[in-house]
Amino acid sequence: MGGYKKKKPYASLIIMGIVSTALYVALLLNQDIINNTFGKGGMYAFFPIITAFVFSYFHGAFTGSFWTVMGVEAKKKKEVK
Amino acid sequence: MQDVVSQVSNFIDLNWVNMTYLFLVGFVGGLVSGFIGSGGAFVLTPGMMSLGVPGLVAVASNMCHKFPKALVGSLKRAKYGQVDVKLGIVLGISAEAGVLYGAHIQENIKKAFGDAGSNLYVSVAFVVILAVVGGFVLMDAWKTYKSGTTDAEEKVTKLAKWVQSINIPGTMVYFKSLNARISVLFTIPLGFATGMLAATIAVGGFIGVPAMIYVLGAPSLMASATELVIAFVMGLGGSFKYAMSGLVDIRLAMIILAGSLFGIQLGAIGTTYVKPFMIKMVMGVIMVTVLFSRALMVPVYMSQLGLISEIGDTVVKALKSTSFAIMIFALALGAFIVLKAMWQGRREEKLAAQEAVSHGKI
Q1: 3-state SS, residue A45
Q2: Which residues of A touch B266 (CB under 8 A)?
Q3: How many domains does chain A have?
Q4: Is A81 within a domain?
Q5: Coil, strand or helix: which one is B153?
Q6: B14 chain-A contacts, CB cut-off 8 A
Q7: Is residue A61 part of a domain?
Q8: Smallest CA–CA separation between B362 and chain A, in Å?
Q9: What is the model's pTM?
């Protein structure tokens, strides 16, 4: 189990970090168009929902790798009932 | 619908200051919800309103950050084997119904008694529920701490044993977190209550988590992890409903999400280092602190409704800011306990590892 060190997810951190940053930059640079479109209501409701899923996928992976690279990981051999 | 859409045109301007503020509150809220399954929302909604975001847009945007956050958190905690997906979905669906009903009640109260009436209803619900449930949770955690049995396996309450013993044919479902079959006739009202509370005070988990622990008999760690599944199901449905009226400000939701995903990962990791009673402790402490925050506002709304004599503007202002400050304090206190418990857990683990090495065990 323990005894050896797993390789840290640097590649995931960098790739997901770049994608996540790009998503945020795109969102903030186009905020007027985005708000006008997303705020229309009705079936446009799918836009914010899909956006939330996309951001959570990339940013979620980035933040996960971030803590692993920082050395903050779950306790090993945790007994779970 | 038209007036709703035109109201949305006043999406606020974002600058670095308010973005940093949302990011930080998101982070702390995420940290706490990664740990106890919910939380943060009670600070985020008023927090956004203080930036000038209209009330409904604040509620909608908060919800739209909640479901992706809960998704990431529940996936993380599922890795640690803490999530009961089936229980989460069963409770989540009935919670959805509770949200719709709770929102309906809110609308009727608003129509009949105006904003002050609706605010009074929310505050009284806050105070009563947090006093009863929060007080109970905190006392239970405190008793465990005092008795020195923090390492012992959590006992299933008498109520939960009774619930698990009832057999109603055709309604029985097996749940792995309970390691028992229980009737969905018990889970439906619990989910419904969770949803109603979520619609009223934005934090359904204050009912959902204690209900899973004390009424159904789930271990604290699994209850708080499963709450994230409920929050996801509830938040997804709720966000879509609000988005159909064009009320979601996706920028606000995603900026809060940026911070809260850092937080929720950390909070989820934290649960692997602490003893189960710590979940109850953090939850109880937050609930009881928030209770005071809302209680301060009750006289303000009562005076607005003419139920008691009028309170001066300066007093109202002072009460409002004190109330908000206490809420932020509650969240910060929760986060502090989580970080401290995690830090201690990590240190103990490191010490144990060093000891093992020095004894030549590894």
Answers
A1: helix
A2: 67, 72
A3: 1
A4: no
A5: coil
A6: 28, 31
A7: yes
A8: 7
A9: 0.91
